Amino acid sequence: MPRVDYEKPDGGRRLLIEKLKADPKNDAAWFWMSKVVDTDDLRQEYLQEALKHNPRNQSASRALAELRGRYPSPWGQS
Description:
single chain, 78 residues, mainly alpha, 4 helices, globular
């Protein structure tokens, strides 16, 4: 996967979208998408998607736990 340039998140986002179009089950791409979006709702959605495709993705699991710790879901854990 191409390197994501955090100084230019739109460029990184574009590369990740292309990767996900080619391989929608790529858990690493979903994880990295969570790093280049602007809202916690999208971060959570993308981390959940990463874990759906690879429940053993420790980076996504830790990031989701941290996100939920700061912003607990009013609906409980899904």
